[in-house]
Specification:
100 residues, mainly alpha, 0% strand, 5 helices
Length: 100
């Protein structure tokens, strides 16, 4: 079950990084979404760790004008989360439920 804890921590860490970057860029969720060409709902879900898509993470990082190192960290976290999801899908059905 440690895999679930790791994934949840990564989702929270990525969400916190994105929220901090957006606030540092002095952008609302709506303005960030407009500039990244995604919906405001997607920005919110990404910041809350409910929706993680690497392309959206990269777009937001560009909009927030984060450092290359920060962008790399965000994308790396998103890729780790994607790997976690794939590993969870490989589990037998009763074990794959993600604790909320």
């Amino acid at each position: 079950m440690n895999m679930f804890v790791d994934e949840l921590q990564r989702r929270r860490e990525l969400g916190a990084l994105l929220l901090h970057a957006r606030l540092a860029a002095d952008l609302t969720g709506r303005e960030a979404a407009r500039r990244a060409l995604i919906s405001q709902s997607k920005v919110s879900k990404t910041e809350n760790g409910r929706l993680i898509k690497v392309v959206d993470i990269f777009r937001l990082a560009v909009v927030y004008d984060v450092t290359p190192e920060c962008c790399h960290s965000m994308v790396a976290l998103a890729l780790m989360i994607a790997r976690d999801v794939e590993e969870r899908r490989a589990l037998p059905r009763p074990l794959r439920e993600f604790p909320r």
